Amino acid sequence: MASFDYNDILMCMNRLTIDIPDDIDVELRKFCEMEHLSPEEAVHEILRRRLAERRFQDLARTTEGYAEKAGFTSEDDLLGDDS
């Protein structure tokens, strides 16, 4: 089994320092407690999800024109709703 060197992992990461308002800090701490995550882990998860959401939205906008040209005008058209 391969062993991992902590220093190798650190070399793949960048540090970002931000100031956050008190209300977000309180909400973040509650989230961390409920999810049993460190603040760093929680922020990683939140950023990953938000960036994935943004990529999905960009993809949806990109493909919307193709769907319209193909005659799909609603979600029901895509899903083949037989109701």
The structural class is mainly alpha
Number of helices: 4
Elements, N to C (H/E): HHHH
> What fraction strand?
under 5%
Q: Give the integer mean of the pLDDT values.
A: 84
Domains (count) = 1
Q: Give the terminus-to-terminus CA distance.
A: 54 Å
Shape: elongated
Unreliable parts: none
How many beta-strand elements?
0
Q: How is the biggest beta sheet arranged?
A: none
Identify the notable features of this structure and list them briefly.
83 residues; 67% helix; elongated
Write up what this structure looks like.
By secondary structure, the protein is mostly helical. The chain has one domain (21-79). Helix content is 67%, strand content 0%. It has 4 helices and no strands. It has helices at residues 6-11, 22-35, 39-69, 75-79. The protein starts with 5 loop residues before the first helix and ends with a helix.
